[in-house]
Amino acid sequence: MYPSVAEAIALPVIRRAKPQVVAGSAGMQGRVRWVHVAEVADIAHLLRGGELVLTTGIALPDEPVALTRYVDDLAAVRAAGLVIELVRRWSDHLPEALVVAANRHRLPLITLAQETPFVSVTEAVVALIVDAQLAELRAAEQVHETFTSLTVAGAEPAEVLREVARISGLPVVLETLGHEVLAYDAAGRDPTELLADWGQRSRSVAAPERTAYDEEAGWLVTMVGAQGADWGRLVLLSPDPPPHRHVVVAERAASALAVHRLVARDRESLERQTHRMLLAQLLGQAVPPPDLAARAAALGVGLERRQLVGMAIRSATVTPRAPALATQEVLRDLAEATALAARRVAVPALVGVVDDTTVRVLLSLPAQAGVDAVLRRLAREVHRSAAGPVLVAVGTTVSHVAEVRRSLGEAAHVAGAALRSPGTQLYHRLDNVRLRGLLHLLRDDERVRAFADRELGPLLARDANHHSRLTELLRCFCEQGGNKSAAAAAAHVSRTAYYQQLARIAQVLGVSLEDPESMLSLYVALLVHELDDDA
């Protein structure tokens, strides 16, 4: 919030004295906190740092060693600069000792060629300091208003970070305490470069206080969360020491993010939101965004030179007829349980809910890992962690990000097809669902739907009009391979009554149930009908 030395000597009252920077030009952007007029050599112990010292030099020593010590002492207390009037002591140039020492410490050393009323200089610089402080306070007030509005509106983390980048003009990253990137805004810069080796870079930057600036890394870091229950860090990449307003921006943004997490903790977690967005982009775009691999890597899920496996996990309690709110709650819990299972078996994975029925997962395995062994461990842990019975489906293993969409799509198809399949497999693949899998892939084909309607239409109409269960009895007959006794037992109906119902089914449909082709056609139509119910 203070002006620089360069801004101070650009003031008209100083410019009229023909200022010249004779040494320490590298420190001209140093900040001037105050102006101090001093004509004695032992002034350093009275300074607090940031002062622009004005002197005529009349009381300074003659010896080069003493002059060097004078500059050394000013640099030690972090004086902003030294201004010497060339009228009373030195008329045209300064002693070499002063110049050499000032250059060594990068302490701006400025001469004034004409006599100058120091009181006027002091007034002008102090006015500049006050104006800068007022401007900083006004900017801080605007920042407070902006982030208060965002907090009240329940802004998502991406929106909060976008505002941080807009105000500061700097890239900003929100990470977990484990140094995984949850969200970021590159402020118009290359996201791949921003996120490259993020975890390693972040671990090397420790914050001794809740908000701190690491000069070596060029990072302004502030903790996110309630003190004692922190859950993340907000990082502004600032190559130069940040002004006070940027510190205010970081801290207010951290507060907004903490409040959002408290409000949203009964909803989807921030980590799941981040994973969901990446999975949605992998599923929704034939060509993934160029920065997607870098964003995933920053979450600890590498996508390059890895074996990538899509998974879909469905809960037995999630059906098309379940209430939407209850369904989302079940899926959120299942997603968290799946993420926990992946952590327990040390498998990097993106886990998120991208539709109304399924938790999607993308596994990232080393090139030499045994995929089946990993899948068995993970599936077993998912079944153990989930609150109820679940179905785990797996797509084809792929090696390129561009192929991930196919693997995730296959897993979803397998999950849909396997819902009614018998068996207790840990997980299902395409070769486990066979005919159901084929029909699931073709379920949106109008010709398949028309076939099922032709085969079952009269029977479905009869059940709807007479509240009968002929379709269910036919399903039992087909699932038992035409064994009437077994079908009667499965339907919990006496054999005599069941045989009568089968005769009525044959009459309604106008087909012979003894004909293998008729039974196969009806079974296929029943499977298509079931897929519509499960969609």
Percent of residues in β-strands: 15-25%
Q: Roughly what is the average pLDDT, rounded to an integer?
A: 85
Instruction: Classify the helix fraction into a percent range.
Output: 40-55%
The low-confidence runs, each spanning 5 or more residues with pLDDT under 50, are: 321-326
Q: How would you describe the overall organization of this protein?
A:
50% of the residues lie in helices and 16% in strands. Helix 12 packs across helix 13 (371-385). A 5-stranded mixed beta sheet has the order 1-5-4-3-2. It has 535 residues and is α+β, with helices and mostly antiparallel strands. The chain contains 20 helices and 14 strands. The longest helix has 35 residues, at 118-152. The model is unreliable at 321-326 (pLDDT under 50).
What distinguishing features does this structure have?
five-stranded antiparallel sheet; 535 residues; alpha+beta
What's the structural blueprint in terms of helices and strands?
Elements: H1 5-9, H2 12-15, E1 19-23, E2 34-37, E3 51-55, H3 64-76, E4 81-85, H4 96-105, E5 109-112, H5 118-152, H6 157-168, E6 172-176, E7 181-185, H7 191-195, H8 198-203, E8 211-214, E9 219-226, E10 229-237, H9 244-264, H10 270-284, H11 292-298, E11 307-315, H12 324-344, E12 349-353, E13 359-365, H13 371-385, E14 390-398, H14 404-418, H15 430-441, H16 446-466, H17 470-479, H18 484-491, H19 495-509, H20 516-534
Parallel strand pairs: 2-3, 3-4, 4-5
Antiparallel strand pairs: 1-5, 6-7, 6-10, 8-9, 9-10, 11-13, 11-14, 12-13
Helix pairs in contact: 3-4, 5-9, 6-9, 12-13, 14-15, 15-20, 16-20, 17-18, 17-19, 17-20
